[in-house]
Amino acid sequence: MEGHPLALHDVMFIPALVAQASDEQNKKWLRRAQRREIVGCYAQTELGHGSNLRKLETTATYDVSTQEFVLHTPQITSLKWWPGGLGKSSNYAVVVANMIVKEKHLGPHSFLVQLRDEITHQSLKGITVGDIGPKLSFNAIDNGFLGFDNYRIPRTNLLMRHSRVEPDGTYVKPPHAKINYSAMVRVRSHMATGQGNFLAQALTIAVRYSTVRRQGFIESGEQEVKVLDYQTQQHRLFPSIAKAYAFTFAGYETIRLYEQLLKEVDTGNVSLMADLHALTSGLKSVVTHQTAQGIEQARMACGGHGYSQASYISEIFGVAVGGCTYEGENMVMLLQLARYLVKSVEQIKAGESGKLGPLVAYLAVKVDGVDLEKGVEEYMKAFQHVSRLQTWKASEKFLKLLKSGEKREVAWNKSSVELTRASRLHTRLYIAETFKRSVQEVADPRLKEVLTDLLHLHVNYELLDMATYALEDGFLSSSQLDYVRDQLYFYLAKIRPNAVSLVDSWEFSDMQLRSVLGRRDGNVYENLVAWAKASPLNKTDVLPSVEKYLKPMMNSKL
Ligand SMILES: CCCCCCCC/C=C\C/C=C/C(=O)SCCNC(=O)CCNC(=O)[C@H](O)C(C)(C)COP(=O)(O)OP(=O)(O)OC[C@H]1O[C@@H](n2cnc3c(N)ncnc32)[C@H](O)[C@@H]1OP(=O)(O)O
Ligand SMILES: Cc1cc2nc3c(=O)[nH]c(=O)nc-3n(C[C@H](O)[C@H](O)[C@H](O)COP(=O)(O)OP(=O)(O)OC[C@H]3O[C@@H](n4cnc5c(N)ncnc54)[C@H](O)[C@@H]3O)c2cc1C
Questions:
Q1: Is 525 contained in some domain?
Q2: Structural domain for 88, as ranges
Q3: Which of 3, 12, 377, 422 gives the lowest tally of CB atoms within 10 Å of its CB?
Q4: For residue 125, which phi and psi values (nearest 5 degrees)?
């Protein structure tokens, strides 16, 4: 859970080589990386810049006389800062640097760079490298810093699958300006399943523990109730169970799309790139935020023992919440999706609705009302409505400011909170739709039934959560919202008997969960006592601090 120093080798270094190095380059590097003869990381973020890639300061200047690139970090803010596995473990890195050829700045490009000697592992001359120190979590990973002092690498270490620099310095452009961002898009497209998994772990712990923990009464009786029988506890946990499934289904779809994109890009077709970038930018942001909230609620649902490290939920939270920042800070990525949504509105206004992609086609279709009692399809229309409403409102705000003479960037900034709201609603619609489609495809009738209950819970919870938008223009009435509330409570109660099976179905072993509260056998109290007794403070009855500090204080006459 704390991460692995070689994680980025598999998650970003190898994928960056696969997607960005030419076949010829990969004959040299890929097998060695796959066999772990060399260990690599993905070094892009700098001390001064992470979000705004166009302002990265590390330069790679082509020297035509020696056919080498000269890597340089001109000032302190240019140091690479954060890359996982960079500090101590990696001897190579894919380094993203601003490429300069014949004095022309050609923007961020990726280079394979050797950092350490393959035998001694010592850092090479011209390289400054180290660990950035302890973090909120992920402390088994050596996130690092890296500086270059006019460090030379061969021309052929520029990753040349899509763009090239010829020996004489001729630059061959890539088929899409952002193709070098593919390693990030790959991780973003995997993040929904990854985060769904973190959420599932926290929920497994909280739901199991909630059937062991008895406290208070619902009706006066002999035995106190299992806390999972409280409606508030169910409301805290069950919608997140539904989300963990929903995120996983959405993630499967984005992974498939990324794989399709890779194949298409290899044949020169880059048409999917904008769609996938927009989709994964929004999905990554919504899923990480909701996962962090869900894990924190799971911790609180375990009361005092949730706060103990014995629950292990705090560790899961620390790792998962990193996802709100890495692979693009959430607000920044929501605004990337918003660009796509605003462009779609502009297309509709220009009478070009026919050109809209399938995920945004709904923005052009108005619906007057819904009959929620008819089922999930009607909820989808309601989600479409609120997303369309907010997307148009935010876009109109931006376009009006533009028309009034504001500069584009200023108008954008003044509309940005509304724009991020539109991006979230659009993404939540996508999550609900993939959830619905995935449940429809389930063949086993019993599995389908329980997943359908979760789907119903999800759509009712989500619609209630976005109620302000739906009430704003009278699209939903307050009696319709009462119906949604009733449905929500109905499904909480219906899911209760299956709750433990739903979390057990994720099949986390005790070793994976490392939680005293979430043990499969339910022997929580005995093991909490054993866990506490094993605390380092309990190795001796009397601590040395008693002689050193307590006694002098207690014996003092002052
Ligand atoms: C596999 C399992 C995974 C499990 C998890 C593993 C755990 C590992 C833990 C941590 C790993 C962490 C790694 C990292 O964090 S690596 C560093 C990540 N850094 C970022 O994500 C930086 C975020 N910033 C950006 O991506 C970019 O700067 C940007 C997209 C915000 C803006 O880029 P810029 O070049 O400035 O573009 P513009 O804003 O000017 O946009 C121009 C135009 O281009 C479009 N566009 C941008 N990016 C893409 C893309 N990738 N694909 C397609 N199109 C893109 C953009 O939309 C604009 O289009 P327009 O509106 O039509 O003009
Ligand atoms: C655990 C972890 C692992 C990481 N691993 C790697 C790695 O392996 N390789 C690597 O290269 N990097 C890595 N990073 C770095 C990470 O990708 C960046 O930290 C991330 O992209 C955010 O960039 P930043 O730090 O510059 O944030 P900043 O951009 O400085 O964000 C600060 C604030 O400014 C806001 N902001 C910034 N720009 C805008 C804008 N245009 N509009 C509105 N608001 C804006 C943000 O929303 C945020 O609130 C890692 C980071 C973490 C935490």
A1: no
A2: 7-166
A3: 377
A4: -65, 135
- How does pLDDT run across 383-415, given as a tens digit for each residue? 999 999 999 999 999 999 999 999 999 999 999
Q: What is the pLDDT of residues 330-364, one digit of tens each?
A: 999 999 999 999 999 999 999 999 999 999 999 99
Mutate to test the pocket of ligand 2, among 55, 92, 180, 329 (most ligand atoms within 8 A of CB): 329
> Is the distance from CB of 16 to CB of 159 less than 8 angstroms?
yes
- Number of structural domains in the chain: 2
Placement of tokens 């799971």 in the chain: 298
In whole angstroms, what is the distance from residue 128 CA to residue 33 CA?
23
Confidence of residue 3 (pLDDT cuts 50, 70, 90): confident
CATH of residue 66: 2.40.110.10
Domain membership of residue 549 (yes or no) is no
pTM score > 0.95 for this model? yes
327 is catalytic: yes
Instruction: Express as a percent the part of the chain with pLDDT over 90.
Output: 97
| Cβ atoms of residues 112 and 28 within 8 Å | no
Contact by Cβ (8 Å): 89, 13: no
Q: Average pLDDT of 71-77? A: 98
Q: Helical H runs in 354-477?
A: 376-403, 408-440, 445-465, 467-472
Check residue 218 and report its DSSP letter. Answer: S
Three-state DSSP class for 109? strand
For residue 260, the domain's CATH number is 1.20.140.10
Q: How far apart are CA 380 and CA 436, in angstroms?
A: 9
State the ipTM, two decimals: 0.98
Nearest to 341 by CA among 297, 400, 277: 277
* Per-residue pLDDT at 558: 65
What was the pLDDT predicted at 196?
98
Ligand 1 pocket (Cβ < 6 Å) reads 7, 11, 42, 44-45, 50-54, 84, 178, 181, 184-185, 187, 190, 194, 273-274, 277, 326-328, 332, 336, 339
Examine the domain organization and report whether 45 and 155 are in the same domain.
yes
| Beta strands at 104-114 and 92-101: parallel, antiparallel or unpaired | antiparallel
How far is residue 13's CA from residue 11's CA, in Å, rounded to a whole number? 6
What pLDDT score does 372 carry? 98
What distance in angstroms lies between residue 51's CA and the mean position of ligand 2's atoms?
A: 5
Mean pLDDT of 177-186: 93
- pLDDT tens, position by position, 276-317: 999 999 999 999 999 999 999 999 999 999 999 999 999 999
For 230, phi and psi rounded to 5 degrees? -75, 135
> Helix or strand or coil: residue 144?
strand
Rounded to 5°, the CA angle 490-493-494 comes to 80
159 with 256, same domain? no
Please give the Cα distance from 320 to 314 (Å, whole number): 10
Rounded to whole angstroms, the Cα distance separating 141 from 350 reads 50
